[in-house]
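Now for a specimen:

…
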Amino acid sequence: MAIRKISSKVQDLIKVQNVLISLFDKSGLETLVNELLKINSSIKFYSTGGTYKKIAEILGDKSNNNLVSVEEYTKFPEMEGGLVKTLHPKIHAGILGERNNTIHEKYLKEVLDNGVYFDLVVINLYPFKEAVSLGNSDIESARGNIDIGGPTMIRAAAKNFLGCAIICSPNDYTEQIEMIKNNRGCTSLEERFLLAQKAFALTADYDDNINKYLNGLIQNNKINEIIKSYK
């Protein structure tokens, strides 16, 4: 069965109103949040865990109006250990949903209890490459640093560059803030496309590093040792 093409009108400029943020590396977060708030005082940040706490510190009293926890939004608590926070239909429908599609709008509103479209997704990943480069790293340290929710959101937002912008490096914050300012608080279709390419390059490299690490263990006959460590 063929995947259908987009069935609704594609917008060039999309206002940055709902922003989903989940970060391991929180450098530059204060600047990003404050600058976006200057551009749009009614902006909503949706976040989890340590990122949520950091944004709450940045916003102070403004948290009541501008910050929503993912748990509050989805009505589902995260699994113990910080697992399964953002792997929820209300998150991914908001990333993947088509703009100007009345069926998708109805799905978000009625099926997902007033779900929103996410206009901007800001994600960076657990540092897998850095974790396994340490001389004392073991399989459990490596396994724990394999990010699941992050790459899933990055790929979803990058796929839907027609309606969602993805930023996955603090190095891009300043440029993207200027782009949004220049577009009167909006992202452009061209910029969303360029960001999508960067995002897929990142996830491809991330998976390649995991593959190389696991394959290295196999090539060095470490499987029995690994299995034994879990028994």
Notes: The chain has twelve helices and seven strands. The mean pLDDT is 94.
